[in-house]
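Example record used in the benchmark description.
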Amino acid sequence: MRYARPMQVALLIPALAATLAGPAAAQSATKPTNDAPNPYNTVSDYFKLPAGRTWGSTSAVEIDKDGKSIWVAERCGANSCLDRAAGKMSDAPTVLKFDSTGKLVTSFGAGMMIFPHGIYVDRDGNVWVTDGQDNAPQPARGEAPAGGAAPAAARGGEGRGGRMGPPPGSTKGHQVFKFSPDGKLLLTLGKPGGAAAPDYFYQPNDVVVAPNGDIFVSEGHGGDNDRILKFAKDGKFIKAIGKKGAGPGEFNGPHALAFDSKGRLIVGDRSNNRIQILDQDGKFIAETAEFGRPSGVWVDKNDNLYVADSESGSVNPNRPEWRRGIRIGKLSDLKVTAFIPDPETRNAPDFRGTSAAEGVAVDAAGNIYGAEVGPKAVKRYVKKTGT
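Model output (structure tokens):
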């Protein structure tokens, strides 16, 4: 559940030294961590969907509080639950719960979300999901968007740089929902259709809940509103953390959130190609570029760090030497010790798609689950015998 039981953890001096040199220096000095061993076997068709239903794009995967059931929020067999041409929402449930054998046992959320993006299960078993897009009309081909904003060809994605809030006509999306385990809506954060800073949200990426009930939501998926918002457990706004930038405590696509055993906030600062560690007031503690371009992060009870990199090389042509996949290491030294490589080996400039896991979760038995946007799949990774 991305929060671990208390234990002593210390960041080693080399990791801290890298932070003092600044983000650019630390990243440029970091060699690709592609050669770590892969101690896992891949299970591709573990989950059983209802007859006639196929996986859509998924970036949201999470473990239930029982430690073995798996929650997935998927995009209705496509990469959006909104058919924009028809102006109609899919009637497929977007939030799915599977038991430890891969059998579907619960589903809900039909018609509520356009673009399920991040998911979290709190210690009470409640399910939180972010909706990262809106239903604003798209301009016709070649037509400038209303208000002179950036082109909407990649709505909600990184093709919409410069925008601080949703475009005109947005009436649905850009919210965060809290559900009971059986699908009852308990709390909604944000305005329907979104809002520009200092209001919220626009492109919420992920959500996590601290032990005291405080809620943290990261937003900014290509616009200029990159920040983390902190709320009390009743949804009352507390503060905004960070801004767009590459300095300590700044973000460029804060795509994923987790807590470690000491309650520190672990941020997948994707377009800055780094993991940042902050305290719950937003104070910068440390960073590392060892784990590639982080789309998803997970911290287990032993403070092992799992990072899903779905974009290195293919989306970031300035770093073609980095491979996509899941990198694994420890928060104690921020070093990669294992790597599950993406089977898709093409890199820029011949391949510009997202591949491999974008979301990642780990059950109590140590099995890893990767949610994939481009391939439209959820894979299971199981330790090889003898490792």
